[in-house]
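Worked problem 6 (solution included).
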Amino acid sequence: MELWLKVCLAFVKIGAFSFGGGYAVLSFIQQEVVDGNQWILPEDFVNIVAIAEMTPGPIAVNSSTFVGFNLFGPIGGVVCTLCVIIVPFLLALLVSVYFTKFKNNLTVKNALNGIRPAVIGLIAASCFSIGKISFVNVYSLIFFVVAFFLVYKIKLNPIITLMVCGGLGIVLYQIALPLIGVA
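Solution. The predicted structure is:
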């Protein structure tokens, strides 16, 4: 029961402070779920991020579902998902009621002007954290460059980019490297 409470409170906290969306909250999720409590392995965390790119839904929701399911089964997945969405849901409801009243408020505008660049910093920190886990060899760096080029320069859809890199990963790691005796 103590673990249930600890996990639920962790995901309520993650949901409450998930400003800036999924990528901005990645480092917070990693601190809470991987580094602090070791509920999942770093490799599993990277897989959650990869799967979250291919599936609908925010990363915080996907990770809460994954951790809850791993720790407690299907009921845990549902409960942890509810825990991570309850505070943002209530905040969104509150904001929708009062937004028009405060949208031109100078204090609100100034607060948002401070939060926006901070979100970029949070996203960059997450990129470095995930990069440390993901860059295991020169091939992973090549996949990074290919994905970056396809999305940033060619403007290829990220889902298609993931499918392309997944296919290239199969060809490289399952066929090419074993064929030349490197794997």
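Discussion: The longest helix spans residues 74-102.
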